[in-house]
Automatic annotation (TrEMBL):
NCBIfam families: PRK11883.1-5 (NF008845), proto_IX_ox (TIGR00562). It is found in: Cytoplasm. One of its GO terms (biological process) is heme biosynthetic process. InterPro entries: Amino_oxidase (IPR002937), FAD/NAD-bd_sf (IPR036188), Protoporphyrinogen_oxidase (IPR004572), Zeta_carotene_desat/Oxidored (IPR050464). Keywords: Cytoplasm, FAD, Flavoprotein, Heme biosynthesis, Oxidoreductase. Involved in coproporphyrin-dependent heme b biosynthesis. Catalyzes the oxidation of coproporphyrinogen III to coproporphyrin III. This is Coproporphyrinogen III oxidase. It is an enzyme of class 1 (oxidoreductase). It comes from Filibacter tadaridae.
Length: 473
């Protein structure tokens, strides 16, 4: 008799960071607690990692998708330590960041926390806002709490506190970039709920952020310490994390190039039919695919159709490598964001060679620009040469560029960024309740649901893993 016959079987659908984290920690849990559990990870493509894709070329380390993660969110650092690769982590170099408004790069005022001023001096001196705009933003100091308890858009929330100018020239470029979304539709509750809490507790966002933002500790000599970067990545790219996870998953537990075509029930079991004709009976399933795929799979059962309608946007990243002498940068800094009101196609640009020095060989420059956003996605469908031409034209107006790049790496993410619209949290909670009625041992996790950053996705994978173990044992 096969000793594994009595083992519980869990299938994790999707080999991005959410699925990989769920599989790794579930296998770890099974070993440490001696649980009779078999874990299978199913990935439709021939590679793992999902949006994490690193190109290593001519000494450059170029990220096609995410390039780093916030250090204060602990889950990636913990995972790196568990995998034994924490010594590969590097912190970003700090430097001045800018916002492009009216064809000019304006330094982001010192003391800005996600665009909210916590120091009056830099805010009053900046020419990023008019005098009228500054006076309206200062109204936050005296305005009462809104009293709105239901979810609302980021745009509505911040315009009420600060007026239009601060929002359009600073807050919108900073906040919308993460979600490639429109702040007049993005949910406050699902994207930045901490700001709602600050208003609730402190009334004024300016005073509240000043009180709650940790102060930089002075150095031993009594002078201000050098500001430390808030982000980590891996010296040789984020794919380091994916490779380590793949190596440490149990042999034979990963199926690549196999796509889930249908999911049904047989008593307490979930029956999964693959595109190669194989069927797997699973005691539990963790679905880490995007919401559209989940909706398609459960459409025959009349489930998850509201979630399936979550809108998405398309973006593209454009990495350009140059000889150092071909790029003239008068500004010391690490990159800039672009105000939506500006007449440019790019939405942001990182001076990667400065922000992440380990990515770029000596004597070279690496720029990483972004195009595409909600309501302005047509550029993503253009050819590589057309996109490169547009990006170079934009950059040449902002920084001095001579000649063509040594090479360009363009990556399109088509209909890839889920938009957390107002009511998103309630929509996801309702979908989970709905799914539980017919498929109580199928769980949803990933960027479509409860956070798009790498730490958020790992947290979701771990939470789903714990829930499955609790259900089965």
């Amino acid at each position: 008799m096969d000793t594994n016959e009595q083992n519980k079987k869990v299938v994790i659908v999707g080999g991005g960071i959410t699925g990989l984290s769920a599989a790794y920690y579930m296998q770890k849990e099974a070993r440490e607690k001696n649980l009779p559990l078999d874990v299978i990870l199913v990935e439709a493509s021939n590679r793992l990692g999902g949006k994490i894709q690193t190109v290593r070329r001519d000494g450059f380390v170029i990220e096609r998708g995410p390039d780093s993660f916030l250090i204060r969110k602990k889950s990636v650092g913990t995972l790196a330590k568990d995998l034994g690769i924490e010594n590969e982590l590097v912190r970003n170099a700090t430097g001045q960041a800018y916002v492009l408004v009216g064809g000019k790069l304006h330094p982001i005022p010192g003391g800005s926390v996600m665009g909210i001023p916590t120091e009056m001096g830099p805010f009053l001196k900046t020419d990023l806002f008019s005098l009228a705009g500054k006076m309206r933003a200062a109204g936050d100091l005296v305005l009462p709490r809104s009293g709105i308890k239901e979810d609302q858009s980021l745009g509505r929330f911040f315009r009420r506190r600060f007026g239009a100018e601060l929002v359009e020239n600073l807050i919108e470029p900073l906040l919308s970039g993460v979600y490639a979304g429109d702040i007049d539709h993005l949910s406050l509750q699902s994207t930045y709920p901490q700001f709602y809490e600050v208003e609730k507790r402190h009334r004024s966002l300016i005073l509240g952020m000043k009180k709650t933002t940790p102060q930089q500790k002075p150095a031993n000599n009594g002078l201000a310490a050098k500001k430390e970067g808030a982000f980590h990545t891996f010296r040789n790219g984020l794919v380091t994390l994916v490779d380590a996870l793949e190596q440490q998953l149990e042999p034979g537990s990963v199926m690549k190039g196999v796509r889930l075509e249908a999911i049904d029930k047989n008593g307490d079991k979930n029956v999964l039919t693959m595109n190669n004709g194989q069927t797997i009976e699973a005691d539990a399933v963790i679905m880490t695919t995007g919401h559209e795929m989940a909706g398609r799979l459960f459409a025959p059962h009349g489930l998850l159709q509201d979630v399936r309608q979550i809108p998405t946007t398309s973006v593209a990243t454009v990495a350009l490598a140059f000889p150092e002498e071909h790029v003239v940068q008068d500004n010391e800094g690490t990159g800039f964001l672009v105000s939506r009101a500006s007449d440019y196609s790019i939405t942001a640009c990182t001076w990667t060679h400065r922000k992440w020095p380990t990515t770029t060989p000596d004597g070279k420059v690496l720029l990483r620009a972004f195009v595409g956003r909600a309501g302005d996605q047509a550029i993503v469908d253009l050819s590589d040469s057309e996109i490169e031409k547009i990006v170079l034209a934009d950059l040449s107006k902002i920084i001095g560029i001579k000649g063509k790049p040594d090479f360009t790496v363009i990556t399109r993410w088509k209909e890839d960024r889920p938009q957390y619209r107002v009511g998103h949290k309630q929509r996801i909670e309702a979908a989970r309740v709905e799914l539980r009625t017919k498929f109580p041992t199928v769980l949803l996790a990933g960027a479509s649901y409860n956070g798009v950053g790498l730490p958020d996705c790992i947290d979701q994978g771990v939470a789903a893993m714990k829930e499955v173990v609790k259900k089965l044992f």
